[in-house]
Amino acid sequence: MSDKVRFGIIGVGGIGAGHVVRIESLKNAELVAVCDIDPAAFDRIDSKTRERIFCTTELEEFLNFPGLEAVIVAVPHYDHPDLAIAAMEHGKHVIVEKPIAVHKAEAERLIAAAKKYPDLVKSAMFNQRTRNIHRKIKQLIDSGELGTIRRVNWTITNWFRTQLYYDSGDWRATWSGEGGGVLLNQCPHQLDLMQWLFGMPEEVTAYAAIGKYHDIEVEDDVNAFLKYPDGKTGNFIASTGETPGTNRLEIMADRGRVVLENGKIEFIRNEIPADEFCKTSTSRFGTAQTWVCAVNCAADPMQEHTAIINNVAETIRGRAKLIAPMEEGINGLELGNAMLMSGLTGETVKLPLDSAKYAEMLNKLIAESQKRPAKKITKTVDEDFSASYRV
After folding, report:
1. Contact, 4 vs 24, CB < 8 A?
2. What 8-state DSSP symbol labels residue 323?
3. What average pLDDT is seen over the chain?
4. CB contact at 8 A, 33 and 62
5. Adjacent-strand bridge partners of 257
6. Reduced to 3 states, what is the DSSP secondary structure of residue 34?
7. Tens digit of pLDDT for each residue in 339-367?
8. Which residues contact 127 (CB under 8 A, 6 or more apart)?
């Protein structure tokens, strides 16, 4: 067996074409095949690479290509489960682009199918887990350095998108084509990091605005309050309508405050933990003395999407463990589904989320959407994804 894992890609839009370049840059991976329903998509691949690999519009031809070992699924969201399942049924390891599904019930179906293939490696493309700055925060939390976490705020509004962006594809910003807006397209990484760092809440209460800043039928502005089983609280704010936007994660803990912003971690550490200071201070006012701690993070050794592909290749060859197991993708998805459900119903949503109830709500939104006039498209080929490839 060659040391290089032989990869194929389903979907050669902007994202899939980017994965072509990433695979080609790795010493432990080799691109051998690509599949897209639109043959024009193959023009996004460098001509020398295109001449060397197998290009097809037929899914079965792709999955049966000799020597193909692993498949990256890089198509619109609704197709992720079916194509990942098809790849596993053909004995292929898989990387599924985010989100792994549009809603929890579909993620459950995908994960149930994946259990039939315990020897296959299954990863999600949660590339932001590879950032050293995020791994350092996880280390601070898991080591107990921060003590009890009291409150978490993440404002992630630097997702500004123009109307032209939404008009560039008929699947964009529709219930039937995308299944959601900022929570499902832009924020899966932050939702994944929220659960990876802080666990899952037990209740979600949210405000979600439909088309607040754009002519779209899905949410483009969300403000959610999270209540956790251990007593901490959280706020998650996301929007595609603010510019300049903000990306600021703030963690208030017993031993101080951590802020991640502008690519830097600021840790102001209490000399005496807040709980102890509150109980023992002889002053009615004032706060604990603090230290400003330097938190050094090494530069990321590899571009983050490339790091996930590299990690999967190393795992397939038995030299590593997965950074982002596919089945963990259900957690951030469930969190986003709960925010949207709360925002649209005006009710607090308890977790675990009732996946059947959410699917019913989404189906009603799709049915209502289909009664509206067809969306006017400004481009024939979408910049991120080419045509959907349904099994």
Report:
1. no
2. S
3. 95
4. yes
5. 252, 268
6. strand
7. 999 999 999 999 999 999 999 999 999 99
8. 189, 304, 305, 307, 308, 324
Q: What is residue 381's predicted lDDT score, i.e. its pLDDT?
A: 45
The span from the first CA to the last CA of the chain, in angstroms, equals 30
pLDDT digits (tens, 9 = 90+) for 45-94: 999 999 999 999 999 999 999 999 999 999 999 999 999 999 999 999 99
Buried b (16+ CB within 10 A) or exposed e, 198-228: bebbebbbbebbebebbebbbbbbbbbbbbb
**CA quadruple 86, 78, 101, 301: dihedral positive or negative?**
positive
- The per-residue pLDDT for range 13-48, each reduced to its tens digit, is 999 999 999 999 999 999 999 999 999 999 999 999
**Strands 203-210 vs 247-253: parallel, antiparallel or unpaired:** unpaired
Residues ≥6 apart with Cβ < 8 Å to 112: none
Q: Which pair of structure tokens corresponds to residue 336?
A: 């986003």
Task: Give CA–CA dist 7/12, Å, rounded.
Answer: 14
User: CA-to-CA distance for 11 and 4, rounded, in angstroms?
Assistant: 22
Angle at the Cα of 136 from the Cα atoms of 232 and 122, rounded to 5 degrees: 90
Task: Say if CB 122 and CB 93 are below 8 A apart.
Answer: yes
Angle at 330 between CA 229 and CA 354, to 5 degrees: 65
Beta strands in the chain (DSSP E): 5-10, 29-35, 54-56, 70-73, 93-96, 122-124, 149-156, 203-210, 219-227, 233-239, 247-253, 256-261, 264-270, 290-293, 349-350
- Residue 74 CB-half CA count within 13 A: 29
Given strand 233-239, what is the order of strands in its sheet?
Answer: 290-293, 264-270, 256-261, 247-253, 149-156, 233-239, 219-227, 203-210, 349-350
CB atoms < 10 A from the CB of 241, how many?
17
CB atoms within 10 A of CB 297: 15
